[in-house]
Design brief:
The chain is mainly α. It has nine helices and no strands. It folds into two domains: 118 residues, TRAP transporter T-component (Serine Threonine Protein Phosphatase 5, Tetratricopeptide repeat), CATH 1.25.40; 61 residues.
Length: 213
């Protein structure tokens, strides 16, 4: 009888855990969709409000799941995009918090979400101004972006951001190479809007890089 009761308790705990994980994953997918809508399908005049709401939602999910890396990564993505949308004095605080969340996520599960931690860190380090204003650092940017590519060599985001980084650095031939790889990346399941928006950005950067050759 004791063994039977123990088995029932174990099964109940495992079921509760699986339901919890499913709920978190559903919330992450929801944030992904909302981010794509706010970033690519919302008028500029309404983006600030959309991201303000999304930051609060992503923060709540991350705080409710401190041992999961994925919510922290998405909180960082939302914060850094929001910083670009709103600008101003508050932007630096948002990107610093984004970096903190990514570094915390790395300690939990470094290769989660196909290397998105390193893609996001790399993009922050080349897009944020350097000292004394911010923490921008080209060497760290390249290190993290290469790490992201080693995890996900055919992914749209690591190739796009590495190509954009090379464009910023004036390495136009290399920029074209990686932007073309990003353009040829396989579609991401369940993320058509994000892929459509990213592909538009890729073509814009490719056109600029080719003109520079």
């Amino acid at each position: 009888m004791m063994k039977s009761r123990s088995l029932v308790v174990l099964v109940t705990l495992l079921f509760a855990c699986s339901v919890s994980l499913a709920d978190v994953n559903d919330e992450i997918v929801k944030i992904q969709h909302q981010w794509a809508k706010a970033n690519y399908a919302t008028p500029e005049s309404e983006q600030e409000k959309a991201f303000e709401s999304l930051v609060a939602e992503a923060q709540k999910l991350a705080e409710s799941n401190p041992d999961r890396a994925e919510p922290r990564v998405w909180l960082a993505i939302v914060l850094s995009t929001d910083a670009g949308v709103t600008g101003g004095l508050g932007a630096l605080g948002k990107v610093k918090e984004a970096r903190r969340q990514l570094e915390a996520a790395e300690k939990i599960s470094p290769e989660v979400l196909n290397g998105s931690i390193y893609t996001s860190l790399g993009s922050l380090y080349y897009q944020v101004p350097g000292w004394p204003i911010g923490f921008g650092d080209e060497e760290k940017a390249e290190m993290y972006l290469k790490k992201a590519l080693s995890i996900n060599p055919v992914g749209i985001d690591p190739n796009y951001f590495y190509g954009d980084f090379q464009l910023e650095e004036g390495n136009y031939q290399k920029a074209v190479k990686y932007l073309e790889k990003a353009a040829a990346a396989p579609p991401r399941p369940g993320r058509p809007l994000a892929d459509k928006g990213r592909q538009a950005e890729i073509q814009e950067k490719l056109q600029l890089a080719r003109k520079k050759l």
